[in-house]
Structure formats: structure tokens, C-alpha cells
Amino acid sequence: MTVADRPAPLMELGMAMAMLQRRDGNPVFSPWRRRLARSLPRLAHPILQLVSPLGAGPMFMDPPSDDVEEGMDQILSTPRPQARAELRRMCAIDRLITPWVRGLADRDRDAWQVLKLAVHASHASVIAEAWPRIQAGFHAETAWRSRILAQQGLHAALTGLAPSIRWRGMTLEAPFPRDLDLTLHGHGIILQPALFWADHLLTAPHPDGRLLLIYPAVTPLPLRDASTPADSLAALVGSTRAQALRLLVRQHTTTDLARELAVSPAAASMQAKILREAGLIVSQRDGKAMWHWCTPLGLDLLAHGRA
User: Fold this and answer.
1) pLDDT for the residue numbered 211
2) What is the CATH code of the structural domain delimited by 232-305?
């Protein structure tokens, strides 16, 4: 099991559009829901025909890309059979078969152009301005989860994702709106926190075959201060080293680190050396590659640096 290393903007958009339609009186999201209901542009409204308040949506709508334009390209290139199957699944849950939805299923060009405009409009209205806060909340959450996983193990990391989760032998049981059995077949799990979701666990297949387990972050976005605070971690260790430490929640080679930081391998090696000497990461050579990852102290610093 691994923890996702970055938030997915289109997945967060889907979660936000689901929460917008909830009528369960959630005290955390209620004021946010009222504000968004007033400000959401009309161009974005078609998205509501596709996303259920149960958190479900067509799989093609939330590709696990951290780049919106790349994700939009993946949405628009959805093959007709996949689009039809996913839209049929959503209509079987609780979405209406509207003329526009039929147009999407038939790969009508105008219908898909409406979808493109709706995704861009809703992203600009809901996600774009909040993106620094989403990133900050995501990194704080994943650092904390990684710490639990490292210290307490798999069972504790999974049962702490949401209330009423329990192990029955080798089976993890969690509340869900309908009966659903999932088997991993040895592919593993990626934990993906959602800043715009506050209910049951959600699942989706990852392109590499693993199961994406989407869970509500402990601190959802409406509880994060609207003005993004100064990056205290960057003030402490420097912005490049802070970014490197966040990346090293997952193992990276020096080459990987250099690419992610947009610096030379020599500069990445120097940053890793400083973090290692501070006890924040460990490094291990494997052939020609040097691998780096956070120590418990580094994870603690990440978890508390965003508090």
C-alpha cells in the first residue's frame, strides 16, 4: 500500500460537485455549499447531471492526472463504449437520462463540447482559487497518514480512514451505500485523500492496476484558513528542501528528485545530503541508483509544519 504523492484536481472537482448536491446538513460543508450554489456559473451546471451526491461519477470524468489540461484531453478521448458503459452505470445509480447525457453516450460532438466547457467553468469556479489550500491540506494529510503507516502498520492505517471501518479476518469492511465486494488480486492500494468529501470511502481503478481508495481528509477544505499561511517548513529548511522533503514521502532516486525539483542531479544530491544529515531522510544505494525517503522525524515535520 502506498499514499498518493499529489492531489488530483479533477477528482477533487468531482468530489466538490457531489458535496454541492448533498442535503445532509453537514455543518462543515453547509456554508461552503450555500456560497458555491450562488456562485457556480451556469456553464458548469451540466456536471451535476453526471455526478451523484453519493460521490459516484463516470470514471472517465476524474483521471488521476495532476494537470488539468492533460486530464481534460483524457476525458475528451474517452472511447464510445467506455463512455456508454459509465453513463449507463451512473443512470442506474441515480442520474437521469437527459438528452445531453444521451448525446455524450453517442459521442455527439456538441454534447462533448458542452462537457469541456462545463469542466473548465467548474474548475475555475471551485478548484483554481483554492488550489494552494488544497495542496497544503493534501500534503499535511498524506504526511500524517504515511507516519501512521510507518509506525503502526497497514491495519491501523486503513481502519483510521473513516468511522466504522473494521477488519474481519483478512477482509476490510466499511459502510457503503450499496453492497460491493472488491478483490485486490495482489495489485495493491493507493490511498488518495479528498479535501472536498466527508462521507464513506470511495474506490476507483488506477491505470496501473492498483485500487485507488479515496477517503475524506481529516481536515476538509472548508476548515482550512481561507488565506494560505506562510510556508513555515520552507522558512525553516528552505523552499527547495521543503519541496524535496514533501516528495520523499515516497521513495525517489536522486535522478527522480532532480527531475521533480527541476535542478541538476548534483544539486538534488546536495539537497538530499543536507536533509539526511538533519535526520529527515535516509538514503540507500541500489546498484547505480541512490534511493531516498523520509524518516519518522521527517514525516513528523511535514505533518506539523502545515498545522
Assistant:
1) 87
2) 1.10.10.10
